[in-house]
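For concreteness, we quote verbatim a single protein encoded this way:
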Amino acid sequence: MEQAPKRAAVRRRQKRQTSPGVYVLIVALFLALLVFFYALAARYYTGRFPNKTTINGVDVSNMTEANAVAALNRQVQEYTLTITERDGVTEVIRARDIDLAYDDTGEVAGLLAQYNPALWVTYYFTEDDLSVSGDTTYSQTRAAEEIADLDCFNPLYVTKVQDACLQKNDSGYYIQAEVQGTQLDEEKTTQLLLDALTSHQTELDLDAEGCYLAPTVLQDDETLNQELEKINGWLQAEITYDFEDGRLEVADNTVIKDWIAQQEDGSYAIDYDLVFDWVKTTLAYQYDTFGLTHVVTTHSGETLTLTGGDYGWCIDRPTTTEALIEAVEAGTVGELEPAYLYTAQSRGVDDIGGTYVEVSIADQTMWCYKDYEVVVETPVVTGNPNKGNATPSGSVWAFDCHKSPATLGSYVTQGYSSYVNYWMSFTGNVGIHDSSWRSSYGGDIYLTNGSHGCVNTPYEAAKKIYETVSVGTAVFVY
């Protein structure tokens, strides 16, 4: 009976409940802690960017202004400009090469100022992608140096652009194709590179940007092909000059191709000076004999070398040049005769031919040949050397006057006047003529009673010589 009250007391203790004040206290404590930590977080985010915040793609979450600026600068330091060139070549310019750095103008601070740290929790679950102008600075001097040092500007690695053009080889002319090359418009390319560095462009294709110089004349150019067709027409010409005795000079394509020259307007023409030089050196220098050395054979078979005089061939170089150019332009194939200022009796090596006159001062004798046969052999009287009237000798002349009759000299100017039946002059006022006033010839007469320089000849001999020779016939005196 005594234990029953004890069990009742236990039951009373089990029914006791927690006081509401405890709950209030707990809630209050939790809220206080929550406010504390919120305030602590708000203080942390004071001067910091919220979580999940980027600037220009750079994660600046929880960063201070300084740290964000440093992060942006690190991003700039990773910058590389890749330059794509022709033929698959690439080159790069890096940030460090030009001292590239982020230029903070206060924009980061302005972005940070728009955040209220007390509202940090509202930013925590959202992403914020911000941007700034991304201004940078770099050394213009180093940038210019880096650009100048690129291989695409180095002459050692650059293939120059070339227009299609005509070229000659051993057989003639052909069109050499244009060369696109890798030569840049340096001013344009440099400016594009500087602009790319300034705007942080990461790739620049020089070909796509039209930086390369291009040929202006291509191999299918109509004008160029017309010029080639014209030249090929000239090269069909083959002009032969025949100087006899097997002496031929031929102007064919191997010669003509070297006469063709490009003019200032880009067209092609046969160059007058080049053709003139060929006429001078190949024709005139080799085959002209006028006033030059002649090797003659006397009546006795003796060989003499005579110089001077006015006998022989002399090519008219300008006229011959013009005619040759016309023949080439017409595509002529055949023989062409040079134009001459002076001509001789034979075009062969022996240009005197078989009809000529020979005068020997020492023998006081003259021979006249016709077709290599002597038709006249006669004594003569030549000029008196003791009175300064010696007959010119040592040369070959051409008769330049052939007259019958004639009056020689003048009392007014020369103190004498002589009528002759046959007059054949060969140098100045000196010539061969009959002399009716003389009764004897030959011997030493010329030393005491010689002429004024002419070759005085017996009438019949003078007549025969006159009938044999003509203007241009050779006479040599020795």
Summary: The longest helix spans residues 20-44. The two ends are 196 Å apart (CA to CA). The CA atoms of residues 107 and 387 lie 120 Å apart. The chain has 13 helices and 30 strands.
